[in-house]
Amino acid sequence: MANILVTGGAGYIGSHACKALAAAGYTPVTFDNLVTGWRDAVKFGPFVQGDLLNRAEIDAVFERYRPVAVMHFAALSQVGDSMKQPGTYWRNNVEGSLNLIEATVAAGCKQFVFSSTCATYGDQDNVVLDENSAQHPINAYGASKRAIEDILRDFEAAYGLQSVIFRYFNVAGADPEGEVGEFHQPETHLIPLMLDAIDGKRDALTIFGTDYDTPDGTCIRDYVHVCDLVDAHVLGLNWLLEDKGSRVFNLGTGTGFSVREVVEQSREVTNRAVPMTEGDRRPGDCTKLVSGSVRAETELGWRPKRSTLPQMIADAWRWHQTGDYSA
Ligand code: UDP
User: Fold this and answer.
1) C-alpha angle 88/140/84, rounded to 5°?
2) Topology at the third CATH level for domain 190-221+254-322
3) EC class of this enzyme (predicted)?
């Protein structure tokens, strides 16, 4: 079975990707520094603890496992945090990715699947985005990811490295079989924070900003189920292994939901009240990030199966009540 090097395989999206890779007949080799990931989330292949800021550790994993491709999830990914600690974000995300990309080329591996983000687009007046939309990030997280996209283009020109770049919209939900799920420490994302507030594990949810230029004043995001998202990665990997060349794909559903709509939907799914307060805007937040996925559907044959808001919240809620990695 072909080995796939999965950086960040102990994290939320990476662990779901490892499950999908194993189901598709690949062996996912997780490389993770466990700063935000969990050893107990690595269930579907070998684990190597290592840091992308240490080139020798990356070279060693290539030497030992000889992966046919890389899936690069490892990153710091919180918008608000990136505005407070831009240096940390640039160093970790860009320098770490550059080390990995150089090591990939040095090992003679030519296939690279990269987790990018809708945050590379920045704030654009009420448009539904597509892959050709201009990229003007308004936070350090998005800027760091855009820089890595640029590095990949330069390495293709110089060394023939082929990449599939996925720009994610908001990832939510959890493995319906409960083997892996979303578990951040500290948690900053809307849906898991809200579920914590609903069952009293933390204080009320604060809505960050109610004066945005949207129908109800709160930010609008396009939520995608993590299982659908990782299915796209397996299709992207196969695309590269079939030698179809570098390509960028947005992974969204084309439908946006405001923070208030997510709150209301969570109340319905859990049948419980959502304790909440209204607060200031969070620096770095875009008003609206919504994308179609026409390209992923037509070219990759991607068919999201679980990406309705009630399904995502229900899957997140089930995981929230039954699973974590701290046991
Ligand atoms: N949000 C919020 N309160 C929170 C966390 C998030 O109102 O405690 C809002 C946030 O401002 C954004 C949306 O929920 O509009 C999604 O934020 P999240 O951090 O989940 O993902 P992001 O869009 O930053 O990747």
Assistant:
1) 60
2) UDP-galactose 4-epimerase; domain 1 (3.90.25)
3) isomerase
